[in-house]
Design brief:
Elements: E1 3-4, E2 9-11, E3 14-15, E4 18-22, E5 27-28, E6 31-34, E7 37-39, E8 42-43, E9 46-51, E10 59-60, E11 63-66, E12 70-71, E13 74-75, E14 79-84, E15 91-97, E16 100-103, E17 107-108, E18 111-112, E19 116-121, E20 127-133, E21 136-139, E22 143-144, E23 147-148, E24 152-156, E25 160-164, E26 167-169, E27 177-179, E28 182-183, E29 187-191, E30 195-198, E31 206-208, E32 211-213, E33 225-227, H1 229-232, H2 235-242, E34 250-251, E35 263-264
Parallel strand pairs: 1-6, 2-7, 3-8, 4-9, 5-10, 6-11, 7-12, 8-13, 9-14, 10-15, 11-16, 12-17, 13-18, 14-19, 15-20, 16-21, 17-22, 18-23, 19-24, 20-25, 21-26, 22-27, 23-28, 24-29, 25-30, 27-31, 28-32, 32-33
Antiparallel strand pairs: 34-35
Amino acid sequence: MGQNRADTVIRNCGISGSIKIKGPGSGAGLVGHNMGEIENCYNLADVTLETEILEGAVIAGISNTTTGPIYRCFNAGNLEFIANDLSTLQSTIIDIGGISSYSQNAIQECYNLGSIYTKILANEERETHIRVGGICGNAESTISNCYNRGKIEVNSSKATLYIGGIRGTGTNANENYVENCYNIGDIKFNCEEDLYTGGVSGVNGNIANCYYLNQSDYTNAESGVIKTESEMKEDSFVEQLNEKNQMTIWKKDTLQINNGYPIFIWQ
């Protein structure tokens, strides 16, 4: 769907297969622009974007730009963004996320399993910002009770990178929370310019009760709390994630559908 209107709810929908885009544009598994509500939906389709024009080029598993909330959704499709930038403008911003590329509303009880791969040969004459998150690339809203298991890899010849297991960055990062989340996906990056990377978020902000597996080369060491694999599979970790919620959201993965890491009660 290209656009979900403000008065519309997309519920209990899913997609599989593959989506391939060559040339200017953007791609998402479910919805291009979400102004309404998305609930209980999933994407299994791999989404690939190859372009030489970066303006407006974004990619996501569920929805690209979203001003409406996203609840209880997941992405298992792999995302691939490849660009040889021939644009002429002085600066550009690229947002990529497992659930949403850019969000202005709540993302709750969502998870990403798909890998995110980005390779951009950036224009040496201008400024490029790349913002990548396992859940959301650029979040101007709260992300709560989410997890990422997908691998993230970003390669760029010249750019400023913001990469996080949950959130890449947020325009108002100090006003919007990332809470009760965890990331177990590996993050790799290769760039000649500035790097802002973290296990939960590429930049600091209101990060509360969030955790990640240790990776020594993150630039943002304050992005959540480091835990080991065994600690994340203990009963006490499920209790930690549920501690500040008004109702029980997380449970132990007794059926090993998430390799023993906590899952949602509806999974």
